[in-house]
Amino acid sequence: MEKKYVAAVDQGTTSTRCIIFDRKGRVIGVDQKEHEQIYPKPGWVEHDPMEIWQRTQEVIRGAIANAGIDPNEIAAVGVTNQRETTVVWNRHTGKPYYNAIVWQDTRTDKICDMLAADGGQDRFRPKTGLPLATYFSGPKIMWLLENVPGLREDAEKGDAIFGNIDTWLIWNLTGGPNGGAHVTDVSNASRTLLMNLETLDWDDEILSIMGIPRAMLPKIVPSSDPNTWGNTAKDGPFGAEIPVCGDLGDQQAALVGQACFDVGEAKNTYGTGCFLLLNTGNNIVHSKHGLLTTLAYKFGDAPAVYALEGSIAITGALVQWLRDNLEFFEKSADIEPCARSVEDNGGIYFVPAFSGLFAPYWRSDARGVIVGLTRYIRKGHICRAALEATAYQTKDVFDAMIKDSGVELKALKVDGGMVRNELLMQFQADILNVPVIRPVVTETTSLGAAYAAGLAVGFWKDLDDLRANWQEDKRWTPEMDEETRQRLYKGWLKAVERTFGWVE
């Protein structure tokens, strides 16, 4: 049967979806389902890995049904995922030892402080490109090994195995306890604090310092791998044997989906958090301004491509918080009319340091603040300040990226759920003073995973095929005068300082 499509499984922080794409990168079928957010204690965030696997199976079946296609027409499957979210499970039973510890979780702050006592926050940065922070998987594995009875013993025997969510899904899709592939790609491995950027292998010295048995860890593979890792099962959710051969962390997948294949090309994804990535080619650029050095992708035998990344913990999650915790509105999209009901932010700033501050500050002692409150402030001002917070946080990272790379970013390609918010996109262009460009297909994370899988099996010939698929949908150009821009941003920086040192 002729292969006409590629499937992408996109497992995100709040939901899972499956999207079927055709050769032109157009969406043919999609299904999406949310999963529960579990908050056992302040600062702790967990997911149920079994629920995620269940949702994954449901959306795969749903996407194929919605597309109205024969699964045998699918050439390959790619996976993209929330990164750093840590799962440890038994390779014989497929049962997790504990809930997945989510990337936003801050319970490992004391472990990070202990590791930083010898060598500081940048102790592992020369090898991994990352500071010591609660964000990454390594300290989460340490916490599990220390706190789950019997886990260390099973890990040393090789019975307990670790993976970020990509590894968990690929293992289950390719057979689970019956020979499932235990792999992760270079982009996900580079988010663990355990992989050496130069060797693209687990670093034995860091494993020894953290006390993590190497037997737990998946094999590191290319993001697009002609040596496919296994097939989906005929009796599985796809209902056909299809090679699984593409794997990218969600932000790297969006970089690929935006066709940012040239040095100096950048994209910003507006999701639960915000993630700005700049392609630095085959060069490892070490940040001096609070950014992360990360693997962008590795396609087959070609050399690895690196990126600078600015990671912001809370952007879209702030809109969800206003919706769910404060019940400001019913649907996330309702924030825009609410914010438009006022002319400006009324002099307030909202810094959503719910999980501390990520790039470029890396302050786990920070917590969220609203500053500048007066009796004048209404709901609309808070909604507007919440949207502006996303744009200001992006500017923090954007400026750091220009300093680190020496590249003047002339425009910003954007994607993710929040790019449908026209007020935010215009304010983003205004505060950055560069054009902001939205593509026709904004599901670039899923598209990047599809591209990685499709390249591996020759469904797409080369990068030029993928570049040809990219099309501009809308462009916002700056309209704000320089004096206003400087004044507003100065207020933001003052507000950020007020968040520091809240947690003793």
Task: Summarize it.
The chain has 504 residues and is α/β, with parallel strands linked by helices. The chain has 16 helices and 22 strands.
What distinguishing features does this structure have?
504 residues, alpha/beta, seven-stranded mixed sheet, 22 strands, 21% strand, globular
How would you portray this structure in words?
- This protein is an alpha/beta fold and 504 residues long.
- It is built from 16 helices and 22 strands.
- The strands form 7 sheets. Strands 16-17-15-14-20-21-22 form a 7-stranded mixed β-sheet.
- A hairpin with a 7-residue loop joins strand 16 and strand 17 (305-312).
- Helix 10 (316-324) runs antiparallel to helix 12 and helix 12 packs across helix 13.
- The mean pLDDT is 95.
Decide which structural class fits the backbone: alpha/beta
- Describe the global form: globular
Radius of gyration: 22 Å
Helical amount among residues, as a percent range? 25-40%
| Biggest pleated sheet | 7 strands, mixed
Query: Segments where pLDDT lies below 50 for 5+ residues?
Result: none
Count of individual beta strands: 22
Oligomeric composition of the shown chains: single chain
As a percent range, the share of strand residues is 15-25%
Strand order of the largest sheet: 16-17-15-14-20-21-22
Please, how many helices? Answer: 16
Overall mean pLDDT stands at: 95
Q: How far is the first residue's CA from the last residue's CA?
A: 63 Å
